[in-house]
Amino acid sequence: MVSNKFNIKKNKLIMKNFVVTMTPMRISFIGGGSDLKDFYRVNNSGGAVISTTINKYVYIILNKYHDKSHCLLKYSKSELVKNINEIRHPLISACLKKADLWGLDINSVADIPAGTGLGSSSSFTVGLINALQYYKNKPISKKTLANKACEIEIDVLKFPVGKQDQFAATYGGLNIIKFKPKENTSIEKITNEKAINDLKENLIIINTGIKNNNKIILQEQQKNIRKRKEFFEHLRFMKNSVFDFKSALLKSDINICGEILHENWIKKMELAKGITNKKINKIYEEALYCGALGGKILGAGGRGYLMLICPKKEQKKILKRFNKLEFLNFEFDKFGSRRLIRV
Questions:
Q1: Same domain, 37 and 124
Q2: What is the pTM of this model?
Q3: Residues of the chain by 3-state class (helix, strand, coil), percent to 5
Q4: Is the domain of 97 the same as that of 143?
């Protein structure tokens, strides 16, 4: 039987053969877009978002591959590669380069498919970095893990994304994440159980069934923010609304939370073409008619899940009206990315 560990003389680390990490996806309420560098580096008070992680996860299963000259990669596709430049998945390629590891069997399994607005790409990045460090038997702080994920996605791969998803996936829970102009990021945890439970009980998440690539939306939004003008003011309004939402939430004033979410959705739709469309608008307008107080498309927009704040007593109307659509069954997650198995 092959020994379950082997020595790397270069860094004197004891590797294990098999590790598993589990990283949550997130839903973001207010402030998305203010986590982009083009905004928070210029805005005097930086950016801020309020979001929570949910019990939908990306699992990374990492094992030593029997042929140390190759890597076997299994995600929505499969790759067997003998050189890092052959890897088609940019996040895996960048993470392996950064970790300086090879000869691995990497499997990714997710509760929800990509492209639904739940931040699964960043959950994947965070989970993979965490797994690679775990494989090397190295500890990693939450702050370092989130920053490394941001570095990979934003600085190395030049994805037109912000920093909220990486920090949300790493830390877990309901948080205000603040992005300072000089690149400091801080986490303000919201731990009021009554407020958290009230929020959860008054949320509905509907799968619109729309699937498309939102890269164009993200790129246009980035360009518009650089123009400043009304786009910048919209983001400033949305960033400031984070603290109004928190205040209402701590008072368990779901009506005000819904109004704030609605106001911010109106602003968000102006940031780029394609954030909404006729189908999304129709679902949203009918949901408001049925008793929802406010809502938004999760993620960059144009696809995926529509989140609604709706009083519990009105939810049956929405469930009945949209009975042909899928409703997401979820709970809040408190813990963020964690290491499950190392053998």
A1: yes
A2: 0.92
A3: 40, 25, 35
A4: yes
